[in-house]
Specification:
The protein is mostly helical. It has one domain. It is built from 12 helices and no strands.
Length: 309
């Protein structure tokens, strides 16, 4: 039996906390990158790079057994659905939502994805929604409403629209999580990422190519390009691999609470670097939302990590 005194457990905990810091910082980094580069050009770069990174790692891991990694015929439809929902739709909505919203709001709203996972599983009859989970869900949604209330009172500003887009993105990620659960069990997380990207990336690469070609790339500074590298290679690709390892060592149930470090970190970084300000009403709403999400997940064996961009 593996305990917390095991050195591997300590390394996994340290890696998980470091990853939450990385993902928390990434919301502010992504805001700057999107403002300088544009959403569509960034999506083009991301969905051109991610499959290359993924398949390079898959080939290195499987070597001469790489042809055996191809999904079985009966699973192809599920891989296609996972790619279109989890990558084409979800990631593009996340980027548009972050661009319209703020770093702190984005991190908080995206952290709500486990709630949608619980609701989807309950609707499918795969898991009974317990009273504790129902109460936590209601408290979390109430907290999010309180947190966003000032935006909607101001007349449905673009930031409010961005938060609604992020809520939709969080629900799509939850649907992706449910769809890929049996695939991860059969193929492993690396295969699922690679082959869902194989089907999900091409539509966005094609759709965003004209915007990428028209973007003033020559005028983009080195700091912004480092931000692109951070957001894609470090936060998204390397972060995903580290999170999979942390979950494998510690288990999903023990790793899931680490996710609630992201919004405070994102808020602090946004305050220090982007000048974001927070009223007491927003802080109370954020605390209620994160508390409700945590309460709803108590006793759940698995939880879906939010996409941190």
């Amino acid at each position: 039996m593996v305990t917390d005194t095991n050195p591997l457990q300590k390394w996994a905990l340290a890696a998980g906390v470091a990853l939450m810091v990385t993902w928390g910082v990434n919301f502010a980094v992504t805001k700057v990158v999107l403002a300088e580069l544009g959403v569509a050009p960034f999506l083009f770069i991301r969905f051109l790079a991610m499959p290359l990174f993924g398949f390079a790692l898959l080939v290195a891991v499987t070597r001469r057994h790489f042809p055996r990694s191809w999904p079985r015929r009966e699973d192809l439809a599920r891989f296609v659905a996972a790619g279109l929902i989890g990558h084409t739709a979800h990631v593009s909505l996340v980027m548009w939502g972050i661009n319209l919203s703020t770093a702190f709001s984005s991190s908080l709203v995206l952290t709500s994805s486990p709630l949608f996972t619980l609701l989807i599983l309950a609707l499918l009859g795969a898991e009974k929604l317990r009273r504790r989970q129902l109460i936590g869900t209601l408290v979390a949604f109430a907290g999010i409403v309180v947190f966003l209330s000032d935006k909607f009172v101001a007349g449905f500003a673009l930031a409010g629209a961005g938060d609604l887009v992020l809520l939709l993105a969080a629900s799509l990620f939850s649907l992706y999580t449910v769809i890929t659960k049996p695939l991860v069990q059969r193929y492993g997380p690396l295969n699922v990422m690679c082959y869902s990207l194989l089907f999900g990336a091409p539509p966005l690469v094609i759709a965003t190519l004209p915007a990428f070609l028209q973007a003033p790339l020559a005028h983009v500074g080195a700091a912004v390009w480092f931000g692109v590298f951070w957001a894609i290679a470090v936060s998204s690709f390397l972060g995903w691999i580290v999170w999979a390892w942390v979950n494998a060592v510690r288990g999903l149930a023990r790793s899931a609470p680490l996710q609630y470090l992201m919004p405070p970190i994102a808020g602090l970084v946004a305050w220090l670097t982007l000048g974001e300000t927070f009223t007491w009403l927003k802080i109370v709403g954020a605390v209620a939302a994160m508390g409700g999400i945590a309460w709803a997940q108590l006793g759940v064996r698995s939880a879906a990590p939010p996409d941190a961009g």
